[in-house]
Known about the structure:
Layout lengths: L7 H21 L1 H8 L4 H23 L2 H6 L1 H14 L6 E4 L2 E6 L3 E2 L2 H19 L6 H20 L4 H17 L4 H21 L1 H11 L10 H13 L24 H33 L4 H25 L17 H20 L3
Antiparallel strand pairs: 1-2, 2-3
Helix pairs in contact: 1-3, 1-12, 3-14, 5-6, 6-8, 6-13, 6-14, 7-8, 8-13, 9-10, 11-12, 12-13, 13-14
Amino acid sequence: MKKQKPDYILLMIVGLLVLAGFLMIASAGIVLSQTSFNQPYFFLKNQLIRGLSCGLVFGLIMFLLPLKLLRKFSLFLFLINIALLVLVFVPGVGIELGGAKRWINIGFAFQPAEPLKFSLVLYLAAWLSKKKEQLKGFKDGFLPFLLLLGLLGLLIGAQPDIGTFGIVALTAVLMLVAAGAPLWQFASLGGLALLAIPLLIKIYPHVAARITAFFHPAANSQTISYQINQAIIAIGSGGIIGVGLGQSLQRYLYLPEPVGDSIVAIIGEEFGFIGLLGLVVLFGIFVWRGIKIAKNAPGNFARLLALGLVSWIALQAIINIAAISGLTPLTGIPLPFISYGSSALVVALTSVGLLLNISKRAKI
Length: 364
């Protein structure tokens, strides 16, 4: 097939989101950076040196590699990622922070659950596009899919990182439906998810605490509801146009995770409703272009791959913004392209590189 030009609109939107992320990390993190590392721009430097540089390299590689080659090695990459998830629990390799084992140190530290969002989408696109009619059956279609989700649930849930598993599971389900799975499978997965909620609340105290904080934010304002209350204060303080860049008060250690999952609240405080609306519009355009790429992709593999890549980024953005705005319980997941985290930025830019690769072959 004759190659087209890559989707420059998508590339421009991602560039704006990344630039906005650097701007907000510099502003939101200046106080925490100074008090923790005695450097006002530690977080910004780290995001630039590790996140952006590695992200651009991997993104370029994904942009240039043939899709057939990626399809061929999809299982291999996924199995490597599974092995890395297991290493999280190996003493001396896994790193425990705040009671959670989500990092590994293999000369450099990173979160294996982050690249899983990419490797799982790649593997599922290859697997689902090959199954075709077999997806409608239980033994050859639905059961293997359930076992795969179960394995990932055990590995990620043991860390624990329920928010990330939620993103991974929802993305996988969307890909399954798009591949042509019957409605009864989707309904069955929904029923299993509802049954799992009481179990999650019982096993993970922090999940129960976040749900309690969501329904009763005023009851525990200095404990489990503290983060969401401070986030709402920040957003409310911004009003329509915000207090101005670098003028946030909540960044003075009032708001937990000001450069992490709470960075949306600082955006709302400094740029107001207009700033938040602009952020939503940018992500909306990203989703629109991503879906258009998927719709016009050459072949089922490329179509499912593009859909999966745009889905995990879109789901993560929606859930993060909704949670920090008080519309859903907190999840702890970062905002793609914006929140601090080199592992997350590398995976997001790698995904964008592959989306642009697919767009070269799509008539958009």
